[in-house]
Amino acid sequence: MSHHARVGQTTNKKQKMKASEIVQKLQSRKGQHVGVQWSRVMKTRAGVGSVIIKSTRTFVRAGIDYANLSSVKAEGRDVESLPWGEWVQFPFTIAHKGVDYVRLYPAVFANLRPVVTYSIDGRVASAEEVRPLCLASEFRDSDDAPKCFTVKAESIVAIDD
After folding, report:
1. What does the DSSP 8-state code read for residue 43?
2. What's the number of domains the chain is made of?
3. Residue 110 pLDDT exceeds 90
4. Cβ distance 135 to 54 under 8 Å?
């Protein structure tokens, strides 16, 4: 079975998960690969009345220390404290301005890319269709995989069993 197919086997499909529920599910899988899906409303340009949703489904690792990533160690620089927010439950959750976030790390499978889908007012849409409606900051400038994802806990809709 492919990695993408397994990501589809999820729980809590329609319900938002609380940070404590997310940590509970991830603690038992600390450092292991786990399929996660999150969805959020994208920020749109002035005058756009549509609601645009971005959903991301991918394999991630959680419960690891950013400073221990081999890619970070290879850079040979000191890792400083968080650029914003504070750790609530290191290394899982961060709080910032009353919002809980979950720190996730991309899976290390070769050539695994997140599956990203978009919708405009509930209708499936392409990235090309969505891009002119959204702020430029909603899209990555690079194809390089990020070292980590910091996702609002309320955006996480599914974690594989």
Report:
1. P
2. 1
3. no
4. no
